[in-house]
Design goal:
about 350 residues; mainly alpha
């Protein structure tokens, strides 16, 4: 079963690499749609690590894709050689965490607001779904998909004893607390601004921006805080059994992937956004006088890492303990809570 799983993801990652390499060759030969540099219509795209590139960079994409494909296929071989793993993880990290930028997170966070705003007549300054999900942003998701496939193949090829020694329930609980606490720093600043309190910024900073900007910031802060509450479910009984107040599904088991997929995705996008802010800080794009506008975001990689650890621990706990659902149901109903 292990070799089948490893092979499935390995072949999928190799296929992704070959297809993306074909795109790179097409861009280098003049095909439109190169997603970086001058081809990126969003000024924020200049925060991308590839903002300096031109379509000729496509040949480097071809070379990178070939290396990725070879690495993915090498993970399928039954061999004691660990070299493919040492190459696979950096490639996966590059595709998942380095190439994307914070616009992926902004698109995910603002999509619900953009969907309901027309029904209530809210003015979002001309923001639209099409503007949030341009091809350069969608391309970042494509790159992240390739990285996730390669990471899955590498994880499947890793020996069981190497995977099980670290992701314990105790570490999972600590990671959950960290993942809940870190975004509250950001939330505090945005909630303060919408109330007119210049926390971390000057009074002029608040006065010069439209009120809608602070309402959007408060929305994002509330979005993050609600996510923090849901994160608690990774260590609570209601993360295993739907609680009684959830009509229609109460008392049923929570499918593990219903928690793992969203939490894993959020851990990636907040980490990417935080890395983008850190790069901007190092580049000197921010002012310490307005630290509230950017410093909280620089801690997001800690948030993302903690959420990722908590998610893996939750997944392994659900997988290793088949009676966990029964125990959680007993605790939630008050029947045999001490078992």
């Amino acid at each position: 079963m292990k070799s089948f799983t490893s092979g499935r993801y390995g072949y999928a990652a190799a296929l992704w690499a070959l297809l993306y390499g074909a795109l790179g060759a097409g861009w280098a030969l003049g095909m439109p749609g190169f997603p970086w540099g001058a081809e990126d219509p969003d000024p924020d795209g200049q925060l991308s690590i590839l903002a300096w590139t031109t379509p000729g960079f496509g040949w480097w994409i071809v070379a990178f894709s070939v290396i990725t494909a070879v690495t993915a296929l090498a993970l399928n071989r039954r061999s004691a050689n660990r070299a493919p793993l040492f190459l696979a993880w950096p490639i996966a990290a590059l595709l998942i965490l380095v190439i994307p930028d914070f616009r992926v997170m902004m698109g995910v966070a603002y999509t619900p607001l953009l969907l309901v705003a027309p029904a209530f007549g809210w003015d979002l300054g001309g923001a639209t779904l099409a503007g949030a999900w341009t091809w350069p942003v969608l391309n970042q998701l494509v790159c992240a998909l390739g990285g996730l496939l390669l990471a899955a193949a590498a994880l499947a090829a890793t020996r069981d004893r190497e995977r099980e020694s670290w992701f314990t329930p105790e570490r999972g609980r600590i990671a959950v607390y960290v993942a809940v606490a870190v975004p509250l720093f950001y939330c505090a600043t945005r909630w303060a601004w919408v109330l007119g309190i210049p926390l971390g910024v000057s009074e002029g900073f608040l006065a010069d921006a439209p009120q809608g900007m602070w309402l959007a910031g408060a929305y994002l802060a509330t979005f993050g805080a609600c996510g923090g509450v849901l994160t608690l479910g990774l260590t609570q009984g209601w993360g295993v059994i739907f609680p009684r107040w959830m009509i229609g599904v109460r008392g049923r088991r929570v499918p593990p992937l219903l928690a793992v997929i969203p939490a894993g995705f959020v851990s990636i996008i907040v980490t990417v956004a935080g890395i983008t802010y850190i790069r901007s800080m190092i580049a000197g794009r921010f002012s310490w006088a307005e630290w509230g506008a950017w410093l909280p975001e620089c801690f997001w990689p800690i948030w993302g890492a903690a959420l990722a650890i908590a998610t893996v621990c939750y997944h392994r706990r659900r997988k290793s303990d088949p009676r966990q659902a029964e125990k959680a149901q007993a605790v939630l109903t008050g029947d045999g809570a001490g078992r």
